[in-house]
Specification:
By secondary structure, the chain is of the alpha+beta class. It contains five helices and eight strands; from the N terminus they run ααααββββαββββ.
Length: about 200
């Protein structure tokens, strides 16, 4: 059981608070990993819940600023801003470091008017991608959506079960080499769990 740390004083919403928001969503699938990460950050369960409450309040505040502006105000100046085109959609890819996961970045794809088209964790530029060959490699927090999709192509997107969640239907070999159909679920772009159908793919 966690000790009873002193309650963190209220103040500006910080990058630390945002990491707690990411963890709060991931706790539904991997509470042990989240508890370890929370202790690494030196914060309590109550701190995590409070950070999530404040984040939700910002999201639903009347006359709130654009999502892109909200991320800048919380996370500071992006590490990089890169023009990106997705089909006919022109946007900017903004990247911020995430201390909990040094090899990842939080990516926001923002339109010129500040509307955010996508927001999730991606591999940092220059960081080595994980080696993904079998189902055994698909462990919690091991890879991002695009990494799993490339490793086990062709993967088919699945509708997420909640906001900030994504899914992929893919076929991957098990330890014996038999290819299995499975569904991978991601939160904020990071793998959380894989459900195997049992049927050979």
């Amino acid at each position: 059981m966690d000790p009873m740390p002193a309650k963190r004083p209220a103040g500006p919403f910080t990058p630390l608070d945002f990491q707690l928001v990411l963890l709060r969503r991931m706790a539904d699938h991997n509470p042990d990993l989240v508890d370890d990460a929370r202790r690494e950050l030196g914060v309590s369960l109550a701190d995590m819940r409070e950070a999530n409450r404040r984040w939700q309040a910002m999201l639903h505040a009347p006359r709130s600023r654009s999502a892109a502006h909200r991320y800048r105000s919380v996370l500071g100046t992006p590490e990089s801003v890169t023009p990106r085109r997705i089909g006919d959609l022109a946007c900017e890819a903004l990247l911020w470091p995430v201390p909990l996961w040094p090899d990842l970045r939080f990516e926001v794809l923002a339109l010129a008017n500040g509307v955010v088209w996508n927001e999730w964790l991606v591999r940092a530029p220059g960081a080595a991608a994980p080696v993904l060959r079998t189902l055994d490699d698909l462990t919690p927090w091991s890879c991002t959506v695009d990494e799993a999709a490339r490793a086990f192509a062709p993967a088919r997107p699945l509708e997420g079960t909640a906001p900030t969640r994504w899914g992929l239907a893919l076929t991957a070999p098990d330890a014996s080499g038999v290819r299995r159909e499975c569904a991978a679920e991601f939160t904020w772009g990071l793998l959380q769990r894989v459900a195997v159908s049992g049927r050979p793919g």
